[in-house]
Amino acid sequence: MVRVLLDTDLAMGAPGSDIDDGFALALAVADPAVDLELVCTVNGNTDVDTATRLTLELLDRLGAGAVPVARGAAAPLLRASPRSPADAEPVLPPGTDPSGREVGHAARRLVERVMAAPGELTLVAIGPLTNLALALALEPRVATAVKQVVVMGGVYLEHTNVAAMPGEFNFWVDPEAAAMVLASGAPLRLVGLDVTRRVRLSRADAARMRESGAAFAAFAADCTDEWISHLERTVPGDERERGSCALHDPLAVAAATRPDLLTWRDAHVDVETATERTRGVAVADLLATDDPPAANCRIAVGVDTAGFRDHLLGTLGTLP
Ligand SMILES: [Ca+2]
User: Fold this and answer.
1) Is it true that domain 2-200+236-316 has CATH number 3.90.245.10?
2) What is the pLDDT of residue 81?
3) Residue ranges with CB less than 5 Å from ion ligand 1
4) Residue ranges per domain, the chain?
5) pTM recorded for the entire structure
6) 279, 175 in Cβ contact below 8 A?
């Protein structure tokens, strides 16, 4: 059993919003190998209040309303909160307490949980790393007390090919937080766009989910179709990717329980913070020189796409 704290900028449930955090949360709930102990929310794909409310609603939908939720950072550490063209507009009024089930600020809750169970907890961070950076500032020993941190973030072997957002979204939103996490000494596994763009969900997958008759699958299928349509309108991109969307965040959740689905390589990674032009770009040294810097993380360089699809769709298929 992997004891998991999930940190998310979830937007699934808002019309036309990104779905991958929602699929990641659903996988964490449905996977019998995961004990989901806390969900933290953060500004990113949407504002933190919307993320908090949608997280609470999705947990209820998943029959996991007992999982505590802690609202986190409303903005990056130093920067204004940027929006990407693919982002859904916030649809929920800010500053509202969704249900009274929130349990204080995410950074403080992360510190308390990790320090109370040293060596036991895996943090899966699938949004900007602001909450973890704040937790490390509050209590630097979090870096050695946490069992592992799995991050969906960065791109290491490839490139975004988007001049306006040269770094991967989560690192681009809060590059200073990402740099703090990478410098922290925490045991890090980084799941970047190099692998997450290869694992995709299509309209045909959505149709099959709908046919299953399960309530979550039908909801997820509708959200998937809306998100793919939104992407096709706003970021037409590569024609080979049309009709599908990437499953970035679920792959990070899978990496916590099934690291065998990915190929890993030790690396030293820095995140660019000095200039706006290269904001959030990850610089990965693969330690191939005679005098390399010390490794500070493991990066995913390959993925068993069929194995991951089987794991994700098979596990989600157990949800009512
Ligand atoms: Ca996310």
Assistant:
1) yes
2) 77
3) 9, 21, 126-127, 249
4) 2-200+236-316
5) 0.95
6) yes
